[in-house]
Write a structure and sequence with these properties.
Strand order of the largest sheet: 3-2-1-4-5-6-7
Oligomer: single chain
Structural class: alpha/beta
Helix content: 25-40%
Radius of gyration: 21 Å
CATH topology of the largest domain: Rossmann fold
CATH class of the largest domain: Alpha Beta
Shape: globular
Distance between the termini: 16 Å
Number of helices: 15
CATH architecture of the largest domain: 3-Layer(aba) Sandwich
Order of helices and strands: EHEHEHEHEHHEHEEHEHEHEHEHEHHH
């Protein structure tokens, strides 16, 4: 069946260097092959913009003073977006949906798809909910408006059930992130490199990662590597100042796994709450053993409850340390787990992710 050419306008008012941006670029580059695609944003992040297919029309407002005021930036970008959107276009919002949803409530006739940008307190993820419920009231308030969208894209069945049953959102689809296989091989070593890769912010809890590995004081068996930038960096450097020979801060790197996968032996995620997260799927694509907190984001789903990676009790120092010790002592077994995880990534191939989303959008 021949597909109709759609006019898609992707909305991402702020572009940084996180998981949302990776998903955005995947969507833009894929959908621009057979559709008329535009991106509306307000950014000076030229590094990310250069990764976007030239077929995508980029509408970048470049209003510098707005970037410091997120809510005001969202309001003005949303207002300008609605003004330039043609009647038969579909708006696809990847973040900061509130004003677009509010416009729908007021009678905006244009089609609106939104994607849940991060974890949702969905009554199943109790550990995550403990932190999510501390978020600003405004963030929790926004979710109540999801029902005014024409479609919600989310990343878990638990989210889907919560949105449909509790918030009465009619049209919710589960679409996982795309993880292409890259390949790679690990081997037994005398000293292993343990990596944290991601934003150095409180919800990712890189301080938990660093403190626990330092407390193990087992630097004859491993070195600590941290890739990323964020508000926790100053505290982390202060904690690590007496261990500078054994800890390396790489700073922010574009495509860190492409550059470093050969030396990475373990990837750790220590988030208090999370979406997928992307780094786990990307690490498995290189057959890298991974450790993540149980029932945070899609860790259990990605690892199939421990078959393809290691899980620790979230927020529990001893559980984290015990798993690190076990991986280091049984690294050959960890290699086999990662290989099985690599094979399992067919669940996240292009057909089951991007093409599936394309087929859904065709029906709007």
């Amino acid at each position: 069946m021949k597909k109709n050419k759609k006019k898609l306008i992707f909305f991402c008012p702020q572009i940084s260097d996180g998981g949302i941006e990776k998903t955005l670029i995947n969507y833009l580059n894929y959908f621009s092959i057979n559709n008329e695609v535009a991106l509306v944003t307000n950014t000076f992040n030229t590094k990310q913009l250069k990764l976007i297919n030239k077929k995508v029309k980029i509408i970048n407002f470049k209003i510098k003073y707005l970037i410091k005021f997120r809510i005001l930036n969202n309001l003005i970008c949303s207002f300008l977006l609605v003004g330039i959107t043609k009647k038969n276009s579909i708006i696809f919002s990847l973040q900061d949906h509130f004003f677009l949803l509010f416009f729908k409530l007021l009678g905006l006739k244009k089609k609106l798809i939104i994607r849940t940008p991060t974890a949702i307190s969905n009554n199943k993820n109790k550990y995550e909910s403990k932190f999510l419920n501390k978020q600003h009231f405004f963030k929790k308030f926004i979710i109540r408006f999801y029902k005014y969208s024409d479609m919600v894209i989310t990343f878990s069945e638990n989210n889907k059930n919560y949105l449909k049953n509790d918030l009465k959102v009619k049209n919710v689809k589960v679409i996982y992130n795309y993880f292409p296989k890259k390949n790679g091989n690990k081997k037994i070593k005398r000293i292993y490199n343990i990596f944290f890769i991601g934003r150095l912010v409180e919800d990712k809890d890189p301080v938990f990662f660093l403190k626990n590995l330092i407390e193990m004081q087992n630097f004859t068996k491993f070195k600590i590597h941290i890739v990323g930038k964020g508000s926790c960096l100053t505290e982390m450097k202060k904690i690590s100042q007496n261990f500078s020979k054994n800890i390396k801060f790489h700073g922010y790197l574009k495509d860190p796994l492409v550059k470093l996968h050969k030396i990475i032996d373990i990837v750790c995620v220590t988030s208090k709450y999370d979406g997928t997260p992307n780094i786990l799927g990307e690490a498995l694509s290189y057959k890298i053993p991974c450790l993540a907190p149980s029932k945070v984001g899609l860790s259990n789903f990605l690892f199939e409850n421990g078959k393809f990676g290691y899980l620790y009790k979230p927020g529990n120092d001893q559980s984290f340390k015990n798993q690190i010790k076990y991986i280091l002592s049984n690294y050959n077994y960890a290699i086999n787990k990662a290989k099985n995880g690599f094979n399992s990534l067919d669940r996240f191939n292009k057909k089951n992710t991007l093409t599936k989303l394309d087929n859904i959008i065709q029906k709007i």
